[in-house]
Every structure is written in structure tokens, then in C-alpha cells.
Amino acid sequence: MSGNWKAICKTRDLFQNGYSHGTWIADLKGYSVKSGYDWIRLKETKVGWSKLVWNNAALPKHCFVNWLNIRNALNTKEKLHRIGVSPDDLCCICHAGSENVTHLFQHCPYVIEILELICAWLKIPKPQGNSLIWTGMRNWSQVQKAICLAVFMAVNYIVWQQRNFARLEGVLIRPAVVFNQCKTLMKIRIRCQLSKVVRANDRDWINCILN
Ligand SMILES: [Zn+2]
User: Fold this and answer.
1) Which residues have C-beta under 5 Å from ligand 1, the single-atom ion?
2) What spacing in Å lies between the alpha carbon of 91 and ligand 1's midpoint?
């Protein structure tokens, strides 16, 4: 069996095991040193990654990139620099910070500007730290949490996509344009996935963000 095929089978097995038995927390403990995320807090609060990432409101490709993120499988410049592939570790977007997932999805001025627009649209406070964990810990209805998680996963996906465009083609779309694209896409997705039976409080909020 070739190395590539073995890697694909291993990834498939990890995915199937974690997804079907809900063992992401136990499985991810071994990744605490590599990932840089606050896994101890995650473990204490029992917020399972599977519930955060594999969410019907989110687009499958968005789930996949976020799953790669939590598996520490995105090849950021910091990682590439560490193994000698990149001459520096500077963020491809802002060129002002070491490019790791925490910088890209939380601290880069580019993502901060997008998140500000997103939060104004969703009428929620700006996330503190990791937007997925933060949303998972909110005392919101399941519908609101699912929608906000799906939107934050879309933001992470788009930021990673823009980072790749910036790195490979030297082009970058302005945050306001990215926000509008993300908003349009997620409004269509929410309309398609939304159950007709939603509680009055959720309905008011959803009507507000869809109009
Ligand atoms: Zn940056």
C-alpha cells in the first residue's frame, strides 16, 4: 500500500471513529502540545469538537477546513518555517505576526475586521479567543449556537482561502467584500437548512439576520 493511500485510510479511520463515537475530546488530548489551543479548558467544559465542527448548518467544506484546523493539519507559515520549507514565518495577510492558527483566526487585523462586521450582523458580542469554543460555551438556544458556529466556520474557511490566495497569487480581497460574500452565502445556507418549526425568540432573531 502506498504512503499516500495509507495516510488517506488513517484519516478516514480517525474521522469515522471520532464522529461516530463522539471521542474527539479523548482523542485530541494527545494533540495538546502541538495545537496551541487551550485544551484543558476545553476538557473541563466538556465542549466536544464533534458537536462544534460537524454541524448541519455549516457547509461540509467549511467543516472540513475547521476539522483540519483542530487536528493541527493546516500548513501555516510558522509550521513551514519550522521544518525549513519557508524562509520566514510571517503572516501572508498582514506580514506583521507569526502565522499560526491563533494569529490567523483570532489576532490578525484582517480577521478582526471581518469578525467585527460579522458580529454586528449577527447582533452578538465579539468572540473572546477561539470563536468556536466561545460560541459553544454561550448560553444561547441550540439554533442560535448552530447558526453562529456555522458562520464562524465560514469565516475561518474564507480567511484560510484568502491566506492561500495571498501566499500563492499575491492577491487579497478587502475584509468588507469578504464579509458581504460570507453573509450572502450563509443567508442562503440558513434558509435552506432551517427547520420550519423554530421557537418565537429564535424566529425573531433569524428574521432579523436574514433581512
Ligand atoms: Zn496576519
Assistant:
1) 91, 93-94, 97, 108
2) 5
Encode pLDDT of 169-184 as tens digits.
999 999 999 999 999 9
What 172-177 contacts at long range (C-beta under 8 Å, 24+ apart), as own/partner pairs, is 172/93, 172/110, 175/110, 175/113, 175/114, 175/117, 176/113, 176/117
**Distance (Å) from CA 97 to ligand 1 centroid:** 6
Contact 205, 190 (CB under 8 A): no
Residue 175 CA to ligand 1 centre (angstroms): 13
pTM score above 0.90: no
Paired residues of 98 in beta bridges: 90
Cα 60 to Cα 53, 63, 101, 120: the distances in Å are 10, 5, 20, 25
**What φ, ψ does residue 98 adopt, rounded to 5°?**
-70, 125
Task: Dump pLDDT digits (tens) for 48-72.
Answer: 666 666 677 899 999 999 989 888 8
CB 159 within 8 A of CB 112: no
Closest-CA residue to 24 (of 6, 44, 51): 51
Q: How far is the CA of 120 from the centre of ligand 1 (A)?
A: 22
Domain residues of the chain, as ranges? 3-210
